[in-house]
Amino acid sequence: IDVPDIFDSPDAILAAREVEGVSTVRRIAEDAKGDLIRRIGEIGELALPADHSLARSFQRSVGHIEYHFDALARRAVNGLVRKDRERFAATRRAVAMLYPDRHVQDRVVGWYPLWLQFGDVLIERMIEEIEPDSDTFLVIEV
Predict the structure, then answer these.
(1) 0.90 exceeded by the pTM?
(2) 10-17 and 85-98 helices cross at what angle (nearest 10)?
(3) Which positions ≥6 away from 102 have C-beta within 8 Å?
């Protein structure tokens, strides 16, 4: 995972890496949505001239349909992304550690400025001190 990707949600990070399945779902959804909008337009061309008072409710209904169609496509993409639960859990942990509660990690725990000052020696010392062989800590490489 590239560093800027950490600021995305775990779903978005994995979706970018599930290129084939996700892109296929997105393409199908985009094509289907285009067809749906075209058909709704045909209905509107027939119905709206007959009763102009339908225009507002018709547009509102179209908005609801588009919203729910987009939500369906998002759920399908998220389902593909989450099919590999282990990768999803690991990605979610990484995002939670490096971007906890949607805050930049160095604002929560200020190790980054120290790393800039001391370099890899700081990392080596931190790993020595936290006892990576214990169940309490998890060392990950970024």
Answers:
(1) no
(2) 130
(3) none
